[in-house]
Queue: 2 jobs
Job 1
Amino acid sequence: MIDGRIMKGIGGFYYVDTEDGLYECRARGIFRKNKQTPLVGDRVQISVVDEEKKIGVVETLYKRDSELIRPPIANIEKALIVFSVKNPTPHLSLLDRFIVLAERENLEIVIILTKVDLDDENLTEKIKGIYELTGYKVIPVSSKTKENIDKVKEELKNSVVVFAGPSGVGKSSLLNEIDSEFKLQTGEVSEKIKRGKHTTRHAELLKLQCGGIVADTPGFSSLTLDDIDENELKDYFIEFDEVDSCRFGNKCRHENEPSCGVKEAAETGEISKIRYNSYIQLLNEIRQGKRRY
Ligand SMILES: Nc1nc2c(ncn2[C@@H]2O[C@H](COP(=O)(O)OP(=O)(O)OP(=O)(O)O)[C@@H](O)[C@H]2O)c(=O)[nH]1
Ligand SMILES: [Mg+2]
Ligand SMILES: [Zn+2]
């Protein structure tokens, strides 16, 4: 038996990286029976079936430190959330949804704004302003002009990082710039509807020359917060924590409660009104069990 990490999963095969190289593995039937699905990023134990051909079987799935459903990936430490300032137009409610899901998994979060070479409406500064108030690092980049590629590289050193964001924002393009050995497929953004064409089909872990592991993933166009509790949501808007003085303390849902410090902070601009409104929208959505975006 040897330990390894699932780098890629396609058509029922798992590609497991071990100290003895990469093995193509099937998973034991028992996982399916127990409704367990191995995920890219899973730490596993495999038995070798054919050393020559590098074929094995996944025998054990170790406990996950973190798990995302969209994109489907396990044991990530940090999420680089990638949105373009144009083509496609950034959808901040979708960005906030992803932040909530990543916060719940305790991931470190960095926001990457791509295609700044196309920014003719100064959206870069606007979005940067909103999210810097939260405390998240925001890095504007362009794979065209190579602006700030180095800063993104810095974020990838000695860490296990996922690139996540909508289709067509330039995740794979950016990764190709970051490591000259990567030859990831990239796709056009549809001229008419300005949406990506889902070029990347599977999540895949890639080893970087500089050390560190990064996952390229398929773009998503919607995220639901179905299994998040309405009382829990506020914990994932981390800037609310910095505001003291809600009359009901930690019980305050920052909605209609009197003397709510968070609501006041959104009025004075101490925290972003846009983020606050986004919180209220998501809160209502969770309540109504609605599934949008
Ligand atoms: N102008 C400009 N175009 C870019 C930039 N980065 C990527 N693109 C273009 O955007 C399109 C989509 O890029 P991809 O890298 O395939 O996007 P993706 O996020 O990987 O998309 P999916 O794999 O579908 O999730 C391609 O036509 C790229 O050439 C950029 O910085 N500036
Ligand atoms: Mg891609
Ligand atoms: Zn409050």
Job 2
Amino acid sequence: MFLKGKVAVITGSTKGIGFGIAKKMHDEGAYVVINSRSEADCKKACKKLGEKRCMFSACDISKREEVKKMMNLVVKKYKRIDILVNNAGIYPFKSFSDLDDETWDKTMAINLNGVYYCAQEALKKMKKGGRIVNISSVAAHIGFSSLVHYCASKGGVEGFTRGLAIELAPKGITVNAVAPGAINVTGKKDAMKNNPLTNSIPLKCFGEPKDIANLVAFLVSDEASYITGECIKVDGGMTIRNP
Ligand SMILES: NC(=O)c1ccc[n+]([C@@H]2O[C@H](COP(=O)([O-])OP(=O)(O)OC[C@H]3O[C@@H](n4cnc5c(N)ncnc54)[C@H](O)[C@@H]3O)[C@@H](O)[C@H]2O)c1
């Protein structure tokens, strides 16, 4: 229970990697705040956690006013925010020649502006010892066809992480990023076993949300107080592979 009593906001935590992070933090004793745009999905996710040490706030993180309301709600209930995990993100596939401004803007609005809004609003309630973890992607490090907009947004997230880490260091707040590789977010074990991408991963399998959650839980714990501005890949060796 190494996160006992900590208050953690995890964006986009009704499913996939975000829910995996919320579950791990809850298991480690934290009070978790579940978020997505859908109130029904938030309720369901809280129920899955047993509704103990859990609240939700349905909001669109690409909208500053909604984010502000969410953080105020959290402080009203739990009095403070110790941890923010910026996890919510989208990855719509579109070739660059077909890419339209709407897809580009939406990707930036959620993946990058959302991280900016959530960090700025959460920091108003965060004290020394606070923790921010941004979920990036290996797409910030290697190129992916039909994901130019996504690669750009995650590259932005990592630059943001380093800049903010420097600015918050004197305040004793750390800011790090975790870059997942291919993660099985279907909720079904071995669902990606026959996916063609598996062959290009040295460990020969997709990761699971818990693989990301285990690292995030460590980074937000007191044990990781000397780590800041880092981006750590969790990708089964995908990005160190020698073709
Ligand atoms: N799945 C992967 O293989 C993978 C790989 C690398 C990086 N990532 C990153 O991990 C994060 C989570 O990905 P995932 O695969 O679990 O996604 P997912 O689609 O399974 O879940 C995304 C969550 O974010 C929420 N969300 C989306 N837009 C939102 C908004 N505007 N406001 C609030 N909530 C919103 C969704 O409702 C959902 O709860 C993303 O940032 C993604 O870029 C995923």
